[in-house]
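tmp note - Polyketide cyclase
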Amino acid sequence: MTTTTLLAAYPGRYFAAWNGRDLDAVAPILADAFHWTDPLLPAPLEHLDAAHGFFTGSWGAFPDLRFELIGEPLVDEAAARVAQEWRMLGTHSGEFPPLPVTGKPFDVTGTDVFTVDEDGRATVVRAYYDALGLMRQLGLA
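out:
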């Protein structure tokens, strides 16, 4: 598999883990050492246990959470990076401390940028989206 093909395939694997609610799919998409930032995380994630907690916490708080990919991934082979625009939809119907359950739906667009190693696992995940807009849709801002 070429580097470009490996990079282009990564977002599909990553979002399939999210949409499939498949914790077994998480380890193969994250390197042993990674750095994951998200606007709503209080600190970067850097361990598989923390990533598992983020996935399961998100699925519990937003049981109908899903990502729809927008367009094709943008590949930067020289930097081993790939970006994917997405649309995230769901309803806040479960606990996600410290946020109170609102029962409100949300629809947010964003982009994730991944740095991917030669084994097809992310060493860096950076999520970019309007966190304040999300909080407003949930009635929390």
